[in-house]
Amino acid sequence: MNTVIVGQGAIGLLCYHRFSQLKNNNSDNKLISLWPSKPTRHTHYTFREINENVKEFPLVIADKQALSRAQVIVVCVKSYQVVSALKAIHSLIADSAIIIVTHNGLGTLEEIDHLLKPSQCLLALLLTQGAKKRAEYHIEHTGIGNSDFGIVYGTLSSEVQKQVVDDFEQGLKQVHWQENIQFAQWKKLAINCVINPLSALENIENGKINREIYQGTTRAILQEIVEVATKEGVNLSEDSLLSLVKKVAQNTNKNTSSMRADILGMRRTEIDYINGYIHRLGEKHQLATPKNTQLWLAVKALEKQYSPL
What we know:
The protein is an alpha/beta fold. It has helices at about 10-20, 65-70, 80-90, 110, 160-170, 180-200, 215-230, 240-250, 260-265, 275-285, 290-305; strands at about 5, 30-35, 45-50, 55-60, 70-75, 100, 120-125, 130-135, 140-145, 145-155, 175. β5 (about 70-75), α3 and β6 (about 100) form a beta-alpha-beta unit. The termini are far apart.
């Protein structure tokens, strides 16, 4: 399927690389192209595999025509960039386009639903693979894992769904279709609500979240999430989430979370769509979320130290 990857960050280039290696991008009908957030003169990018093989590859930059004929648009930007990214292109893309977003947190659907046409379909991709940006158009693949995706808006025919699933399983590997993607989104949100802010505020690797000193805070975070999720019609188990958080922290023992990396790099974090999302839902349902609210405000305070605006 004609596919445009939006965003030249680590995940955007990872997706572009995997899909472009499956397709013939040397013909006039370029199936895979990249739509960067700003103009670039780059004609190649550098990709470093987990096994440390490093190689340079040709880069195909999308133009307006590529956007208009794209059957699939994969938006690989931070949660707070989704609205601006879609605003920039929504008038150019086909009425039947399949739009796929991959980012941390929840809350972007409420912000972009007015940009979606009734005939379009929006999918969420919960990508667990890791990638690190070494330099402009130079990334390193740092981790693999099982990922999920599914429909959050609109519908797909069984034929088109199968084609999308086949493309993603071939390209990204270990990607599984979920009929109830909302449940998977909430589980990932719970993981992020614990690991991201605690690792960022304490400046620790993911695995250290499993230390006894953080268990009380972890349970408090998850208890609030379960209560809020119930009001949203999603039934979660605190014990199951706790086991899941511990497993992810252990499996990514030496990793730096994206939020910790953002704080260390003095960049804006996705906290507004993680613990901040729980805070907003708490207000909506008149539920107190003191621990998630505290973490949200603490990370925002860290951001203000280097970005007062």
